[in-house]
Amino acid sequence: MKLIAITGGIGSGKSVVSRMVHVMGHEVYDCDSRAKSLMIEDPLVRQELMQAFGKETYLDDGSLNRAHLSAAAFTDPTALMRLNAIVHPATATDLIRWADEQAAGGATIAFVETALLRTSGLDRVVDEVWHVTAPEQVRIDRVIARSGLSAAQVKERIEAQRDEETIADGEQVIVNDNASALLPQVMELLSTC
After folding, report:
1. Under 8 Å CB-to-CB from 31, ≥6 apart: which residues?
2. Torsions phi, psi of 61, nearest 5?
């Protein structure tokens, strides 16, 4: 089975591309949502997060205190590395299990949506990369509109992921600049799979 990463910075439109390929009948593993689930459901991940970021990492109802974790991780590079060292291995293990299930079910192609392809080490797991790009101001405007974050907060997240912005040799580029049509680009890439 061919595993293709759909990657790009925050606000680039990788989720839109992922929804397109899903509607076209392909399974997509969403690293962000699975990582969030693992932070709540996986006892080892919970324990490690509390050791690293304190008991206030979880609210009284057991849910993740996203505001606390975001404030800690996105303002301190060392804290972000600590968070990634806990969450990325658990997510990679979960992805590999999921990909094996897809292959066992007869899938010939599946996708993984991830903002942190290289940081997470998933670039060594996938067979191909589709890199979704958009101008930075377009990305900032999109994230503000959907999240309520300030421009400064969005820029912090962009800077925290800046190393992921480089497009490596062999990666397929999808331009999502509000002027280029996405569907023809996705269809063209699918036709070569």
Report:
1. 91, 95, 112, 113, 114, 115, 116, 120, 122
2. -85, 5
Let me know: does 36 contact 131? Beta carbons within 8 Å: no
pLDDT tens digits, residue range 99-131? 999 999 999 999 999 998 998 889 999 999 999
**Superfamily of domain 2-191, CATH level 4:** P-loop containing nucleotide triphosphate hydrolases (3.40.50.300)
Specify burial of residue 190 (Cβ count, 10 A radius: 0-12, 13-18, 19+).
middle
* Domain boundary assignment for the chain: 2-191
Lowest mean pLDDT among 16-25, 40-49, 140-149: 140-149
